[in-house]
Amino acid sequence: MKNNQKNKKYIVKTVIILIIFSIILATFSYYNSLKKWKATALQMINNENYILLEDNIKNDNSKNSKKHIEKISLNDLPPNLVNAYIAIEDERYYKHFGIDIKRTSAAIGSYIIHFGHASFGGSTITQQLVKNLTGENSNTISRKVKEWIKAIQLETFLSKEEILETYFNIIYTGPNIYGVSEASKYYFNKNVKDLNLVECAFLAGINISPNSFNPFGKEDNAEKITNRIKTVLYKMEELNYITEEEYNNSLIEYENINFKKSEF
After folding, report:
1. pLDDT tens across 14-42, in order?
2. CA gyration radius for the chain?
3. What is the pLDDT of residues 202-227, one digit of tens each?
4. Closest Cα to residue 133, out of 59, 50, 65, 30?
5. 47-256 has which fold?
6. Per-residue CA distances from 95 to 102, 155, 232 (Å)
7. What is the 3 state secondary structure string of 78-102?
8. Where do the domains of the chain lie?
9. Whole-structure pTM over 0.90, yes or no?
10. Residue 118's CB: how many other CB atoms inside 10 A?
11. Could you say which DSSP state residue 154 is in?
12. Are strands 66-70 and 49-53 parallel, antiparallel or unpaired?
């Protein structure tokens, strides 16, 4: 009887030691990965200009070539543009810590229900930035878990404003177009700071699939573009980024939207 009690105590002690050791190992692994990720991310972000490998950017067929992108400050972007992206892409951006638990849970549920045949979706702006910085874009569970971890880590050493500024500078916005500044020139032939509400809604709306909403493409995308712009404007009004009057006026203003392709 005493031997059994001793054996049980020995087993319990062994299990506790193993658990403690596992926690220490996991903690060390986490902070080691954080250190490496922080160094890599900051090196990319703090360069005078962003340098992206084009084969790491979605919808780009170029291989092993670099693209230099001139930085634009977040303060130089119209508030409507920032709010439009947050409204349609990540409405709880200022409340989460890198991942949106509500959207992530729904995405995981959908993935399970469809037996792994559904996209995870639910990516926050922080997660999208991680994807752009790493170039990792596969739809696998392991890749998504790594993205969640990196997104959480990113928010420990970058402010929300720094994340937004980097995001707006490097996101894919059209055929060989990166960043909202270049997108503004491409679609409207104007400086990004001069974009009106409807134009801001357009840029935010096409983020879901820029090439599918290209007004200069071979297909007539006018109806798709209209519906998408209205969706963004409705979401902005719902979240109180714009007033009901601004929303109604913008629907009228849309009729005068002028896409003017710029070769630059």
Report:
1. 555 545 545 444 444 555 666 777 877 78
2. 23
3. 999 999 999 999 999 888 888 999 99
4. 50
5. Penicillin binding protein transpeptidase fold (1.10.3810)
6. 12, 12, 20
7. CHHHHHHHHHHHCCCCCCCCCCCHH
8. 1-46, 47-256
9. no
10. 15
11. H
12. antiparallel
